[in-house]
Amino acid sequence: MEAILKGEGISVGYQQNTIIQEMDVQIPKGQITSIIGPNGCGKSTLLKALSRMMPVKTGQVILDGQQIAQLPTIQVAQKMAILPQSPQAPGGLTVEELVAYGRYPHQKGFGKLKSEDHKAIQWALEMTHMEAFAQRNIDALSGGQRQRAWIAMALAQDTPLILLDEPTTYLDMAHQLEVLELLKDLNETSHKTIALVIHDLNLAARFSHWMIAMREGKVLYEGTAEAVMTREVLADVFSLDAYVDKDPWTGRPMCVTYRIKPVYSKN
To answer: Residue ranges of the ABC transporter domain (predicted)?
Structure first.
């Protein structure tokens, strides 16, 4: 398996507080990878470390065969786009203006948009079905529309790799599905490598080629949905007693129901 992005022996933390313990992790090229785990286990911190938003204490991050720490910022931005959790835009921006920010890594001189920039912006709006909202103010959009606008900005950056931190948070079921169907389409038609932090295990298993399961700053399991989405893994990672079966529509594993794993006394 070829990795477009990987961490080798990386640990991450703030001052004396280590959040991610020394680990190896990889994001397979050309696939959708989901990072799952309990709250506070280090999922978002891992994404920040892999994207160079946060420095590693030990080890190294390799992006497309090169140490990310040694790459110029503009070169990293041409290879990788990242959509953080709950991104904020300046007030008064239209969708088109927001998406145009994604062209920054490709601009030179005074940053005037060229014809290829306008083509990339239009393509990003079309891919996210946001062309009808191009002149709409970001603040006037619904949650799902706003998230698609941010994804369009990441698309306009025209990178082979896109990282997203909880892109479905605060969205209802229909809008969550809409966003993930969009990411699937981007992966299949535009060959984008996508890695995301996500809480919904069934959506993770449904849309991912590869899953990384974390707990307490460690990667406990990684592999296909069939390998990670099991009763034994969910018990170990989430302390849940889960009933896992096949999704009748997709054939992927799904958690039908669950309960807190019983604790049996030895007495």
So the answer is: 5-241
